[in-house]
Amino acid sequence: MLNKKSIGTKNESTLHRALKFQYTGPGGTTEAAVGEFVADGISALGEYIEVQTGSFAPLKKKVIEFSSLGKVRIIHPVAIVKRIVTYDEKGILLYKRKSPKKGSQWNIFDALLHAPELPLNKNVTIELILLDITEKRVKDGKGSWRRKGISLKDREMSAFHDRILFKKPKDYLRFIPFKKGEEFTVSSLAKKSSIPADTARKALYVLTKIKVVKRIRKIGNAWVYNR
């Protein structure tokens, strides 16, 4: 029986399962008990594999334990395009649509917002997978009120775009389109990177925590940063 702190496999999506087996690889072990936790996988080379689609906050204690034993790789899939396919309870297709929300590499900061210390761990690699997904839903009246009773049944990859590796803090400099010594604010980062101000704010919070950027002074209510 799996430890209660494992995702288990009962409600595991096709996407999660596919990535888990891909990164665990031949000769590895999936759903492996490690102390009080369960790893998604352990590769034949002894690397601990965790596939996490949402915030990294639930991984913090687990990753600390795993990283004391060896290398850890966190796989974070981000949907560039999400297509939603809805069926009735008999499996008859009701409709298809494309979600208006689009993901990007900047989604890494949503995941790191409540676990900003993870990039400082020398044994932790974070791998961002940019892909398109198809989300299967069933109109059964059992889903959340947000989905008006429609249940989410599965997610699977429909197209692969790119993978980005973050092995050390300086790898996150890719998000700073300013030269060394050049000063910037949340507003100027948002404008130059064509992202919402809230995204820029989250990014600079995490990047400050991992010492990629630093706050140097305030202008009015706005912090000024540099690399």
Keywords, separated by commas or semicolons:
227 residues; alpha+beta; Arc Repressor Mutant, subunit A; seven-stranded mixed sheet; two-stranded antiparallel ribbon; 9 strands; 20% helix; globular
Helical content (DSSP H or I, runs of 4+): 10-25%
> Residue ranges: pLDDT <50 for 5 or more in a row?
none
Order of helices and strands: HEEEHEEHEEHHEE
The gyration radius over C-alpha positions equals 20 Å
Query: Structural class, from secondary structure content?
Result: alpha+beta
Query: DSSP strand (E) fraction?
Result: 35-45%
The pLDDT mean sits at 94
Give the biggest beta sheet. 7 strands, mixed
End-to-end Cα distance, whole Å, is: 48 Å
Can you tell me the overall shape? Answer: globular
Q: What's the count of strands? A: 9
Provide an overview of this structure:
There is one protein chain. The protein is α+β, with helices and mostly antiparallel strands and 227 residues long. The chain folds into 2 domains: 1-78 and 99-131 and 157-167, no CATH class; 172-227, Orthogonal Bundle (Arc Repressor Mutant, subunit A). Helix content is 20%, strand content 37%. It has 5 helices and 9 strands, in the order H-E-E-E-H-E-E-H-E-E-H-H-E-E. It has helices spanning 14-24, 60-67, 108-112, 186-193, 197-209; strands at 29-34, 37-42, 48-51, 72-88, 93-98, 124-139, 150-166, 214-219, 222-226. The strands form 2 sheets. Strands 1, 2, 3, 4, 5, 6 and 7 form a 7-stranded mixed beta sheet that branches. Helix 4 (186-193) crosses helix 5. The longest helix has 13 residues, at 197-209. The radius of gyration is 20 Å and the shape is globular. The N and C termini lie far apart (48 Å).
